[in-house]
Amino acid sequence: MTINQEKHKKIIESLEDKYQAIDQNTEDHLKGLLYSKPITYWDYIQTDALLNLQIQRTVLPDEMVFIAYHQINELIFKMILWEIEQVAEAQDLTTDFFESKIMRVSRYFDMLTTSFDIMREGMEVEQYMKFRYTLTPASGFQSAQYRLIEFASTELINLIDYRFRATINRDTPYTHAFEHLYWQAAGKDHKTGKKSTLLVNFERRYKGDFLNFMEAYNTKNLWTRFKELPEKDQNDPPLVKAMRHYDYTVNVTWVMAHYNAAVHYIESGLGDGEATGGSDWKKYMHPKYQRRIFFPDLWSEKELQNWGMNV
Fold first, then answer.
1. Position 17 pLDDT exceeds 90
2. How far is C-alpha 49 from the geometric centre of its chain's CA atoms?
């Protein structure tokens, strides 16, 4: 038997083991290979489908930048959730594995942070201030994946509006907690409490999914999983550093990059100074107001008090 024949025999045996394990006929699968087309880059990446997802609502060229940029963000959010899920589902969680996943997620957010230059410098203000009116009442506020990232990162209490935290605990129904999430305030009239069209549409589409996800990640979010580790591992310097980096990057650095890009356009003097969804965007976005902190015990009292103040 030649070296190649011996090699092929081992591969066939491995394939038989694989398909027997799932009650499949190896010969049928091998026959299928005879008729399968070779894979190409464009088929694997689905390039044609991907490049046909950018549908403009206006004739203004820079709207294409806006659409493609946000679609790229959503793809990156998907990658972030993919990494977090692996920590959430890990059976034997180690500090090395935890740290590696947290740093992957942090690098994605580092990239998102620097990419805001594309938004701030990559579109003409005059064009943006025209096509943005066709977006009303839509808003980046309605990124469901970003909300899932928050739910998957920390315990629910850390996402509750500060005014209501004392009234909410682990026994609070998820539907009640949902109504007091920090971002609910941005979608409601602060005098009447009436929900804006922005928020109504968002909830109509995603509320059920959010409630299911909130419950599922209640016991396996990043913060909860971290606190399950042995005390020695919770004090592991590289892991603590990675957790702090992720927390600050998401809740201060990235948020401020977004905030500054919004200021550049909304306060350009060419519009009415309002966000497309009608939210109180400054108080919603700036970290010094919302003080979103995923891992509060990893920060000193002074750091917590000055959260978002020095940016």
1. yes
2. 23
Residue 39's CB is within 10 A of a number of other CB atoms, namely 8
For the chain, count helices (H), then strands (E). Answer: 18, 0
Torsion angle, alpha carbons of 22, 27, 30, 35, to 10: -110
Which amino acid is present at 253?
T
Region 251-258: mean pLDDT is: 90
Q: Please name the residue that has the structure tokens 């942090």.
A: 106
> Angle between the 95-114 and 237-248 helix axes, to the nearest 10 degrees?
30
**What is the enclosing helix (H) or strand (E) of 278?**
none
Output the CA torsion sign for 199, 207, 221, 85: negative
pLDDT of residue 213: 98
pLDDT of residue 263: 80
Average pLDDT over residues 62-77: 96
User: What is the pTM (predicted TM-score) of this model?
Assistant: 0.89
CA 35 to chain centre: 40
Contact status, residue 104 vs residue 121, Cβ threshold 8 Å? no
DSSP string covering 134-188, please? GGTT--GGG-HHHHHHHHHHS-GGGGB-GGGGGG--TTS-HHHHHTTBGGGGGGB
Confidence (pLDDT) at 72: 96
Torsion on CA atoms 94, 307, 282, 254, rounded to nearest 10: -40
Q: How far apart are CA 49 and CA 116, in angstroms?
A: 25
pLDDT at res. 281: 59
Q: Please give the domain boundaries of the chain with CATH numbers for all domains.
A: 66-87+95-305 (1.20.58)
Centre a 10 Å sphere on the Cβ of residue 166 and count the other Cβ atoms it contains: 8
Tokens representing 201 are 């549409």
